[in-house]
């Protein structure tokens, strides 16, 4: 059978690391969406305060199955 | 009057051809969205099994009218 | 606290100017979404009729807070 | 019927604004070409003199119908 | 001897397939230009009507010999 | 277990269609490589003769498992 | 004689328009740098508040003569 | 006064060097066009024979004044 | 009030991790610049020795306020 | 003396982190290749299962000396 | 007949010029590969010592026939 | 030890060749900066007069050590 996937774009943030920012974005997505399948990083940025990284901000695309459970 | 369009990103798949994968993505979108206006291909990929193309996977952006019927 | 933002892609149009097309896209988004935070221009195009710009069409990405009010 | 469109690339300039530079490019194109259909902005630059913008220079692609009037 | 080639940009359309849209663009080009040598696909889009692909629209660059027959 | 994949870049050609050109590239790769997993299209071009498409030429990246069978 | 130019990257902002944001960036640059020659737009973004554009933010590259007055 | 420029895309070739290939493209353009103003390199390629560079092939965009002599 | 920001490009390095390389770049920037506001990752590379990552090298753009303290 | 380097493209994976995925790709490369010199990240993706990151998948290019030891 | 081509990526270096760096990369490739057909420049860089260019480093993709001699 | 590098962007020009334009940019940079380490070409353009290349203009990024002599 041929699945269709939808891709949404999110920005996750974290004061800790770039990987944590990605995990936070995935965690937010998984609260309302099931069947998440993959993510891809679009951009890594961060907010600076007092010469330090206050928040890592990573833009990700997240793909999930549209049509059916598996 | 000035329309606003929304663009969503989908991945259609097909065991047959790249064009079929696109058509499948459009068909899925048209089940829940009306007033689809255009699509543009973002990426063409595929899944290989036993040295053959098991599924064509084409990422498309699909634009539709947000604000009103016409 | 770590926010997650969602990014959507819209095309605003206007017979007047490129900036108006962007404002129209933002205005449409703000009718259904709260906590809009930023936009970025993806592409500027337009529809021509009789040798003149009939509509400016500007594709923008709009980011908004997903998880909580502030 | 299936149209074919041709795309040409122009740089319009204006001392006034980026939108005017685009309009000037379209106006030049419409003097020799009929059936102009759309434009898309490729690049926005400008020439500076005495610390001010002397000319806005906007590169656009302009599409027009090749094969037939409609 | 050293040839110079010119590249033009066309959009071919077809109600049938993406490959047909490319062939239509090449066919239009060959009506007025000789010595066509190669094409490259720039973008694949399409116009949607009633939830179906009404026209495939493929932008191609077409290269041809400028200076001489061979 | 964590796999490592290798990606190679091929250009497949075909007088028939863009999809056939891709299939030919995959078929060549599968003669010497096992465990092919995916491909992605990098560029679609073609060679023109007498105003017609003599060969479709599609550049693809092909990924396969490096470290082990599964 | 052969000039060398230096290019710097600035983000200008304005509550009024995208063109004003560019002019503000140029005005800031011209306070400390002479011999500004050109600019090119890198990105157009904006900050949203209450569903409206609070600030346009345009990233520009600005080129100026390094080696000598003319 | 505000000029409009047109940009065309050419591929120059040379058995000698990449710079010669560009000069050959410019020379071809100047045979039929006056008021050439600038060029920019789009791509540098070459044709190989017997393990050597038989021809350098450089794609350039060439800009020239459309509307008037100066 | 409308701020202007300047963006500089740095490469931070670290034997430990990609995030550390970014932090080192920010730390260097903060020694001479105040009012750092954001960074964005441009490229992640690394130097290999004896089959291991000797140094992570991450290119970042760093934005800071030009015109005034806040 | 003038070295020539070869660049290969790999995808490393890891259940732990993006940096580990890169290290795994390098480790695989170093099993069969000597004189690895640098890597650059091409893309960061991941596979999701049950709303969590099951595998980080990072595409890297790895450069190594072709012609001689040093 | 339909050929399949393989593309490899090399970095040639030379203390003399960018063109020499490309020729050195081609020369290295031709020592082990026959049927080289074309190259395309991916990136031009260089190593600086004492304020001078110590080595030009040019990344090229080189295409060659996979399946058969002609 | 972990170095931090700064990258600046310059445009060198030369009436002679593209390589000379790069060398001129490096020469200008080395008058005020020590510890230059590498450059990378961003864009190659030129100014045309009377159908000939009056100046080659090459944009380069130049990297140098920020934190310490070596």
Automatic annotation (TrEMBL), chains A, B, C, D, E, F, G, H, I, J, K, L:
NCBIfam families: DodecBact. InterPro entries: Dodecin (IPR009923), Dodecin-like (IPR025543), Dodecin-like_sf (IPR036694), Dodecin_bact (IPR050049). It comes from Shewanella colwelliana (Alteromonas colwelliana). This is Dodecin flavoprotein. Transmembrane segments: none annotated. The lineage of its organism: Bacteria, Pseudomonadati, Pseudomonadota, Gammaproteobacteria, Alteromonadales.
């Amino acid at each position: 059978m041929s699945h269709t996937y939808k891709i949404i774009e999110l920005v996750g943030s974290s004061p800790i690391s770039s990987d944590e920012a990605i995990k936070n974005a995935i965690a937010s997505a998984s609260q309302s969406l099931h069947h998440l399948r993959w993510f891809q990083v679009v951009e890594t940025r961060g907010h600076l305060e007092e010469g330090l990284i206050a928040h890592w901000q990573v833009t990700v695309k997240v793909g999930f199955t549209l049509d059916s459970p598996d």
